[in-house]
Specification:
Length: 319
């Protein structure tokens, strides 16, 4: 191990500074570098902008439900239970049965696709953890992210003391300079990208069978998750339901599908006036899965520690 020159007291290198032997397997021979870029492989988010919070995130529905959607569901329901597939009302009679529950396999025949722009790499790393979905993401390997790749700053950093925000901005600037220096030295984009922050924004397409999106939203729409992915999922839900209003009752966060609050009797006793607010507070149970204290983490009126379906016996993060 050796200290990196000019940076005493900070990082150490795993090799001596002057040891620059090439390893055949690690040799940088990739095609994706400045000397081979015809100018067409540059990120569209090369705009020298720091987006704060969820500013600048856009979600669009690029593939919706098939026009034959109701017919497919109706026929699948009838095939399952063995009744006439060709009745006079075959297209409309019972297609919503599959959305309400039971055997929902035919929902997998309907694939919806969203395109999301401006999300950080930190967010897309979370999005792609869903197994039964497909993704098409802007590549940091195949394209030049530009001389000023857009960055996303959490509101917590933006609202922090000036010196914290200043250090953050300085770090982003240093990363930008290092990326430019590496690419100008004709280091491949796939190697130069190692210095770009996780807040670097990009584009991703999210492809879900309808059944999987309903399941994913029930989980990822909950505020227990990191704010950026929650924002993306709620935007996607709003767009989908806006186009297909009949899905409104089915695409819900898991807590919105539950029955009366666990602590409803105690809550009513403590709040004897039957106000709308009190009634809202006992409408559902909290399905928050995190280790944190739910109060203050979620704005729903039924988000209370005493009303949670799950509380870890071994790991808790208390206020």
């Amino acid at each position: 191990m050796s200290w990196i020159p000019r940076y005493p007291g900070m990082y150490k290198a795993s090799r001596q500074w002057g040891d620059q032997k090439e390893s055949p397997l690690l040799r940088d021979v990739a095609f994706n570098r400045h000397s081979m870029n015809d100018g067409h492989h540059v990120s569209p988010a090369d705009n020298d902008t720091i987006q704060v919070g969820d500013d600048g995130i856009t979600v669009k529905l690029v593939q919706g439900l098939n026009p034959e959607f109701t017919k497919v569901l109706s026929k699948a329901t009838r095939a399952t239970i063995g009744i006439n597939l060709y009745g006079p009302d075959e297209d409309t009679r019972d297609w919503e049965e599959m959305l309400r529950g039971g055997l929902q396999t035919a929902l997998e025949s309907q694939v919806i696709v969203f395109e999301v722009s401006g999300v950080s790499r930190a967010c897309t790393h979370q999005i792609v953890r869903t197994r039964k979905a497909a993704y098409h993401q802007q590549s940091m390997r195949a394209s030049y992210y530009g001389s000023g790749p857009e960055q996303r700053m959490p509101e917590s950093i933006w609202n922090a003391p000036d010196d914290v925000r200043q250090v953050w901005c300085e770090a982003v600037e240093k990363c930008r300079q290092a990326y430019i220096a590496a690419t100008q030295a004709d280091v491949s984009y796939q190697d130069a990208r190692y210095i770009l922050p996780e807040g670097t924004t990009n584009y991703i397409m999210m492809e879900y069978p309808l059944r999987e999106f309903i399941n994913v939203y029930a989980y990822r729409g909950c505020s227990m998750f990191q704010w950026e992915i929650v924002s993306v999922m709620r935007m996607a839900r709003d767009i989908l339901v806006g186009k297909y209003p009949f899905l409104n009752r089915y695409v819900k966060i898991s807590c919105e599908k539950t029955g009366v609050a666990i602590d409803s009797k105690e809550y009513i006793a403590e709040h004897p006036q039957a106000t709308d607010e009190a009634m809202d507070a006992i409408q559902h149970q909290c399905t928050f899965q995190g280790w944190e204290n739910v109060e203050g983490q979620c704005p729903f009126p039924w988000a209370r520690e005493s009303n949670r379906q799950f509380r870890s016996e071994f790991h808790r993060i208390e206020k």
